Amino acid sequence: MKTQLLPSVLASSLFFALNAHADHQAQESEDDDFLDFSLEELISLDIPDVTSVSRKKQRLMDSAAAIYVITSEDILRSGVTSIPEALRMVPGMQVARLNGNIWSISTRGFNYIFANKLLVLIDGRTVYSPLFSGVNWDVQDTLMEDIDRIEVIRGPGAALWGANAVNGVINVITKKAADTQGNLVSLGAGNEEKAFGAYRHGGEFGETGFYKVYVKTFERDGLAKADGSDANDDWKMKRVGFRAEWKPAADTDFTLLGDIYEGTTRPALTIFKNDEPYAGDKGMQTFENTSRDQRGGNLIAHWKKTLSDTEDYSLKAVIDDYQNFDYRVTEKRQSFDLEFQHYFQPIENHDLVWGLSFRRTWYQMSDMRYIIHRDENGQPKDSRQDNLYSLFAQDDITLNHHWNVSFSARYEHNEFTGKEFQPNAKLTWKVNDNRTLWASVSKAVKTPSVSETSVYTDNITFFEADFDIPYAERKKVLAITDNRDLESEKLTAFELGYREQFGSSFRLDVTGFYNRYSDIVAYVAQTSCPDGSPIIGGFICPTTRSNFYRLPSTLINGIDATTYGLETVADWQVKDWWKLQLSYSWLQVDASPNTSNPNLQFALKGNEELIENLSANHTMNLRSNMNLSHQWYFDVWIRGISNMKNANVPGYTALDVRLAKKVNENLEFSLVAQNLFDKQRDEFNEIFSGLSATEIEESWYAQIRWSF
Amino acid sequence: MSIFTNASAKATIKVTTKVTIISLVSAILFSFQLNTARAATSPEDKIKTAIIFKLTKFISWPKKTQSLTICVLGEGSINNELHKINRKNTMGRRLSVTHRNANSPFEKLCDALFIHNIDNVTVKSVLKRLEGKPVLTISDIRSFVDYGGMIGLKRSGKKINFSINNTSATNANLNINSKLLKLAKTVK
Q1: Do A38 and B54 touch (CB under 8 A)?
Q2: Can you give the residue ranges of every domain in chain B?
Q3: How far apart are CA A253 and CA A547, in angstroms?
Q4: Which pLDDT does position A545 carry in this prediction?
Q5: Contact check, Cβ <8 Å, A306/B120
Q6: How far apart are CA A311 and CA A301, in angstroms?
Q7: What Rg do the C-alpha atoms of chain B give, in angstroms?
Q8: pTM listed for this prediction
Q9: Residue among B37, B39, B160 minimizing CB distance to A47
Q10: pLDDT under 70: residue ranges of chain A
Q11: Looking at beta carbons, which residues of chain B come within 8 Å of A358?
């Protein structure tokens, strides 16, 4: 699994070290001398995590990347009920909810629901919808109690993970079956989280095997419309999954896991009913209760042979099925991945990892009402198949106790742009045990997606009549024609980082980045009408409605951009019962057209503003965890984000509070309030998808967790 | 570059496909042919070893000699860890850790025997041979204490605990300190 390529995130990581009761363990895994422990201690301590131990035992503190780990404790104590909401904790991660179940999540700029520069993995399985150019966050779920951690690397992880890991990698890692034995019941209810429940059972099989099975279901209330009425985008989901691990031989580990899910939500869509008989000046209409039902499932098999501390092989196969009955288009997608990885030390102080991977994706599209997949002649095409091959290698060289350098590169072949090469170099300087400086330079690409190269979109994107162009008296609907000749967007990224541990209670982590992008995809006007009708004034087309024009547009690699910023995290163990974490990020984006073609200048100017105004410039998180007496726990989370100009959302601050009481080791009651004192809040707006934005409301829920 | 319009690209893809598949397959085949070198040790191995080391302090053998021999039966990464406690002192006796095969005369050579990673048939036959002999039998094999083994180590969740079959131990003239019995998860 790619997980293991991450800098080793051991129990010795500083995140844990700051955790008072884990302090003990933190030291052990550093010098692993358990022999000095008493027997009572030995049987009561948790085995340190070894997920990434097979790589060099590198503390989180020493990794040459802007890595942030959301621990399982963070997840449980924040009261978040979904993975996208948990990501709000990550410094610089901008998370905005568009409606009941669609999020825009990005880091280091480009915050949009079609955010396509982040790679998201769940237990090593890639989740990304090439048809919509984004992540279907609404179906990425598991038991919150069973998430071991979420590792987030901001910045290009491309050399190891492949295309689209341009601005970062999010890796959700769930707990092993061996660590989730016995039964767990988690039930909750509230005003927004109407009802949710999960049950997990873990047991043993054979001589070496562990298994677990789980079910999860939830029903979430719809959000609110701007006028305060119910938006009716209620969201229901059911999920069943399992995991099994066993050792076919002493040096071999085999893991099999999978789940199936089914869900329904009915978001409001604003569409241009082009197919209905002429109805005067009616055109743009908002329809509630349009389908976005989804189902799917996946199976992951992972085999690993460990030859020694410094050599292992692994082979992973993933089958994934996803079916999205979206009103705009029904998408069915199956993919198969095969990945081989080998780690060894060819010479002393060189840790070498190399691997090969292959992915094949099959698509079937139907009901192509507004999003139409097409062949090279522009005819609707209801299926396709894509292949992706890649080869990667990383050499991590320990120069001496203080200096470490690492080179990695990835070569891949994709269907859209052919060959891509993505190299990366990192340098770490361990000034002393408590201070680390690191630097990294990398190249990454974001390859064009299916949606950009073979999909014609029409009748769901609107500009109001006052839009600042000629023929302003009428509303306009935007038609977006695919461009098969799009190139990859390219990034050269420079990062500098500094981490320091002050005494045993304070830690600081600062990252600065400077990114240069070229050939970013932009919308430009076309000079002919998609339906062949004569063009008016050189850039607009008639429609079946007298009060509407159609703007024909297409995509080109028309924008270059520079982004730079700073991300900081400070952890402070105020008292042994009180922990504070403050994070603050600052981001600047400067875009410019990369062509002097006068015909494109106007359109590209609009794109330039769009890109510059997508993300907020400032984000902030303050989290406080208190362990009070008599097993009471009190947690507060304040988060703030400055205004997002393009989304037309002013800056806001949100407050979450959680109070929990542990009756004993196995029984916990909690009360969570989210977005406290906020009757309702608009977090995101956009015009391209046709989806109506709905507003987040204050949420209260009570929960009980019982293990037996 | 588009694959739909470009014949040479199609050719490239075919070649790439072949090369990738061949290299994937050969890499996989190659990986199966390797013989097992020294396996990596995990924190779990380290904790189990420490527990085994500590356990010896709570047992009294009928004959107290200068040295205490722990024999190891079975292959695996924990062996590296067990060798690290060789020559350490426990209750005034010097530990000696040696690796043995299934047919060794354990009752002559060992004071304690740690069995791991071996088939159940062998485990049962070894336990049968040692019935009533003063050899402390320890294992992390499931159901070990049910087979008549004396101490079974077991991982549950992120912790390792142990069960004791005190009947077997008493039959073998081994005295297990009551403190240890209190710490055990189950006692038979």
Answers
A1: yes
A2: 1-39, 43-187
A3: 66
A4: 78
A5: no
A6: 20
A7: 24
A8: 0.82
A9: B160
A10: 1-32, 48-59, 158, 162-163, 274-282, 465-473
A11: 20-21, 24
> Residue A446: which of A489, A507, A496, A494 has the closest Cα?
A489
All residues of chain A having their beta carbon less than 8 Å from the beta carbon of residue B28 are 315, 340
In CATH, the architecture of B43-187 is: 3-Layer(aba) Sandwich (3.40)
User: Which residues from A are below 8 Å from B31, CB to CB?
Assistant: 305, 313, 315, 340, 342
Asked whether the beta carbons of residue B85 and residue A415 sit closer than 8 angstroms, the reply is: no
> Which pLDDT score is estimated for B25?
54
Cβ-Cβ pairs closer than 8 A, A with B, add up to: 144
For B106-162, how does the pLDDT look when each residue is reduced to its tens digit (9 = 90+)? 999 999 999 998 888 899 999 999 999 999 999 998 889 999 999 999 887 778 999
pLDDT in the model for residue A359: 94
Contact state of B157 with A179 under an 8 Å Cβ cutoff: yes
Cβ A357 vs Cβ A390: under 8 Å:
yes
- The confidence score (pLDDT) of residue B18 equals 61
Determine whether the interchain pair B117/A250 forms a contact, defined as Cβ–Cβ distance below 8 Å.
yes
- Please give the pLDDT value at position A56: 45
Among A27, A33, A47, A417, pick the best mutation site for testing chain B contact (most B Cβ within 10 A). A47
Bridge-based pairing state of the strands B112-115 and B136-139:
parallel
Query: How high does pLDDT run on average in chain B?
Result: 81
Per-residue pLDDT at A58: 57
Tell me the residue type at A46: D
CA-to-CA distance for B14 and B8, rounded, in angstroms?
A: 10
Facing residue for A250 by CB, picked from B21, B27, B39: B39
| Contact (CB<8Å) A32/B28 | no
C-alpha distances in angstroms, B109 versus A234, A258, B68, B106? 71, 48, 10, 5
Record: contact A251-B77, CB cut-off 8 A = yes
**What are the φ and ψ backbone dihedral angles of B31, each rounded to 5 degrees?**
-65, -25
SS (H, E, C) A401-445: CCEEEEEEEEEEEECCCEEEEEEEEEEEEEEECCEEEEEEEEEEE
Please tell me the number of Cα atoms within 13 Å of A373 on its side-chain side.
20
| Helix (H) and strand (E) counts in chain B | 7, 10
What is the per-residue pLDDT for B2? 30
Instruction: Give A357-370 pLDDT, tens digit per residue.
Output: 999 999 999 988 88
Question: What pLDDT is stored for residue A3 in this prediction?
Answer: 39
CA-to-CA dists, residue A639 to A274, A318, A581, A652, angstroms: 43, 37, 11, 8
Q: How far is A36 from chain B (nearest CA, A)?
A: 8
A545-554, B22-31, B40-49, B89-98, range with greatest mean pLDDT: B89-98
